[in-house]
Amino acid sequence: MRVSRVRRQLFGTSHWSFLFGEIAIYSFAVLAVTGLFLMMFFDPDMSRVTYDGGYAPLRGVQVSAAFDSAMRISFEVTGGLFIRQVHHWAALIFAGAVMLQLLRMFLTGAFRRPRHTQWMIWVTLLVLAMAAGETGKILPDDLLSGGSLWLIDSIVLSIPVVGTYLHQLLFGGAFPGEDIVPRLYWVHVLVLPLLVAGLLVVRARLVRRHGHTRFPGAVAGRPSARTLVAGATVGVLVMLGALFQITPIWLYGPANPAQTAAGAVPDWYMGFIDGALRLMPAWEVTVFGHTLSLVVLVPGLVVPGAFFTVLALYPLIEERVTLYRTRRDLRGRPMTKARMARARTRHDVLDRPRATPVRTGLAAAGVTFYGLLWASAANDQIAHVFHLSLESVTNAFRVAVVLGPFVAFVITRRLCLGLQARDRGVAGHGVETGVIVRTPEGGYHETHRFDEARAIESTAS
After folding, report:
1. Reduced to 3 states, what is the DSSP secondary structure of residue 292?
2. Are 67 and 138 in contact (CB under 8 A)?
3. Distance between first and last Cα of the chain
4. Which residues, at least 6 apart from 331, have a Cβ–Cβ distance to it below 8 Å?
5. pLDDT tens across 1-54, in order?
6. For residue 449, what are the β-bridge partners?
7. What three-state secondary structure class fits 49?
8. What are the residues whose beta carbons fall under 8 Å from the beta carbon of 265, sequence distance 6 or more?
């Protein structure tokens, strides 16, 4: 009890999961500061130059000016490599914090009225984080980024009707061309940061207007230890940038359309697309004389598009389903559309995940689906490490992607129902203390404590 009171005084909130949004904001601040530093030294030019910098194994090799400037930042600019690595780690942490914030909002029902717009903002931030991370990865023009560029080229060309025109607009000619890095540079350093910053400002204004959500029995409040959270976030990013190597472009070498790095995988938040591409069968269909390559179109566009569309619209779907499932009021009278609209109230108190078994089961199914696609991006490495055939590993992942979400939904829903039954039992009979008391009549019974029982009952309500 004393620990929880101190925690509320320190953070102004009732649960540590409320800090995911703060971590995302401070990670973006680190991204902005380190990005401004890198802008002063990076040259987004695809013209060919001869490398003569501080890394001896690549001297005399023809590289792009972009790769040459990235190498100079890493080996010749004071603190350049450290800033590059902090920038990359901050991008990974930012995407992870946004994902965890969305998961927390989904499990607790924090997306309900009047916070539909805030949910949409966080979903959009996740998409922008992925886009910013992928465009930033391409800018150094190394061999690993060349693989990501090839994937974008394949996905764009698989789009029916307009794919060729989009390819021309994006690449300006034959792949890879000399326009893609300069164009993505301005998207990465100007368009995407402004969009993210604008959405964060709008989200802050909405929080001030609608207030903060809270768990049952807790006091709504904003995290008051902002300086502590900011210092911890920046400190962890500095430690990661200083101690853990990431994106060693000098080991990859310059980009070459005819080569790819063995065992190359994208950043973790893009792994589900790579896994979907590996699992998709080689299907093609012909429509009106035009061949559609489903092997790229479905995993590259349809799967992520459907996933994010359902994710963005879920609050409206749940609200509509809930309203139409309760068409009668407390007196048993049918509710008209007008009365159903008036029944839409604001929700400031969050749900415990166990209190909404279906929603929690859907969250488990979504996480399972994403995780299996993410794990399948390493199907070749799994087959190599465990001495299995690549085909058997791929087929196993195909079956798991289809059945795994359903199994996760059923198990999670049953667990939530079981926890609800246990809470009702504790609320009705109290908590066993292990103390045996003898009655005046000579009988024996165990005493029960009801303070925890009352807390559980108030939380469940």
Report:
1. strand
2. no
3. 21
4. none
5. 444 454 444 444 557 778 899 999 999 999 999 999 999 999 998 889 999 988
6. 431
7. strand
8. 271, 274, 377, 378
